[in-house]
Predict the 3D structure of the following.
Amino acid sequence: MQIILITGVNDGIGHALAIQYAASGARVLGVGRSALPESLAGSVHSDDYCAADLGEAGAAQKVQSFLDARGVTGLDVIIHNAAVGWYGAVQNQSSASIRELLSVNLSAPITLTHALLPRVCAARGAIAFVSSVHSVLPTPDFAVYTATKAALDGFARNLRLEVGNAVDVLVFWPGPTRTQMHVKSGIPKEKIYPERYASPEAVAAQIITGIRRRRSQALGPINQVLRWCASHFEFLVDTAMVTVARRARYEKSRRPL
Ligand SMILES: NC(=O)c1ccc[n+]([C@@H]2O[C@H](COP(=O)([O-])OP(=O)(O)OC[C@H]3O[C@@H](n4cnc5c(N)ncnc54)[C@H](OP(=O)(O)O)[C@@H]3O)[C@@H](O)[C@H]2O)c1
């Protein structure tokens, strides 16, 4: 039986990943900061749930002790999915929020990888990072979030060289997905378009397929094109985005108070 460790299983894409993996017969070990929700009762056994706040310094050791206590010496897949967002200009973001984004989105996946790598090597498994199509596509109001995802991409690229054939290092780049992340990040309701976004179930299914095929990918054809363009024509994309941002600021300044 495959053993899959997923961070951030309590909501959104992580929740969908847990349900789909469990339905396929895998044992899902979940990590989350609050109590295991009822909706996961049939997918994550209560004893296989590790309550840990990934923003806290000792989180990686906590997960390690959790695995030791259950005698889990091999992990087939780790999915670094948990993340937090924040919406607005950097100058308006509190330093506590900046620290939280850096801890949860970047430090936690790196320190967890460091702590758990021997167990993934033992299973000749895979480490998957859930990044974002925004890691190469600049947009105003997400600078710190985007920076954490771009740094995670960089970590994965380097790690892949280090581990060679011992472990598969994969990155998935979803685009906008219909989860609570936008609301939690403080994006105004009128700027959220859930009807245009992919469902978390569809995104989870694409991640699972990518892991099975051992292939990193942007999720969905539009995000594949966006990522390809943003990676190959960085200067043009940045120039276009600066123009769009300037225009938005100008329009805003002309609106009556
Ligand atoms: N939604 C999108 O449009 C989108 C687009 C591109 C990439 N992504 C990426 O997809 C991944 C999943 O996001 P999502 O949209 O499913 O968001 P979500 O619904 O908010 O789920 C994120 C999960 O991470 C957990 N988490 C947050 N902070 C944590 C902490 N300190 N310790 C432990 N767990 C913590 C959350 O717990 P709580 O339930 O307690 O908040 C939640 O279970 C993230 O890496 C995100 O960056 C999302």
Remarks:
- The chain has one domain: 3-220.
